Fold this protein.
Amino acid sequence: MKSCLRFVHERSLPFYVIGSGTNMLFADIGFRGLILKNEVRGISRIRGGGRVVATAGTPLADLVSFALEEGLEGIEFATGIPGTVGGAVFGNAGAWGLSVGQLLEEALIFDEQGNEIRAGKDFFEFGYRDSSLKRRHLTLLETVFELRKGDRGRIKALMDENLSKRRSPCPSPKMAYAGSFFKNPVLPDGTRMAAGRLLDQVGAKELKKGGARVYPGHANFILNCGDATAEDVRALARTMKARVKRKFGIELEEEVIFLPAAFSMP
């Protein structure tokens, strides 16, 4: 992975690094550059505590399983979240008020000049489904998480509970969709409202455009029913946003990342 990154930097080639691509939507005409898929995997535990090292291409599910095997708690909330460790840090993935950024201690990244640098937690400026990696589009290589020693039975029970809660509203893994489409917005009083609830109240579950339609079981998922184009999905998303804006005065923000044909590094 490092050699690939150095190659594109040295030649100033347009490129975009992805993990598993679970929350991405590509332009219909494709991407005019190189897509680098990080599949460098590996997990290890630093002796004498709860620190765990994971490479960015490691599936997040593998990290969760490793924590269970080692009797380490803190990452149970991530059970069932798809994608890689790198993608989870990039977008500060989380659930139920907890997020990956809260556990990250430090990481090795590839900066804009093509240099490897080791950065502490503050560097990432984590926010809700956001990080400095996302804003600057830096490439994550390796992570160090701080977990805690816990009871394996209790950890397993909580993971099972979280997986059950996650599966209930989500479409089947056999369906084609890019995860939760919109972020949960913050209301004027500071509370965070579920985007799916707002969309449900404006009748979004009835909407469709071309081969794309809103999932009947949860209004914050857009399904590809077999022949949807990226523009079908984006047009449907615009209609959903407009309805919420008109009824509630709230501007929904996409959580799914759209990659245009020509991408400029920030």
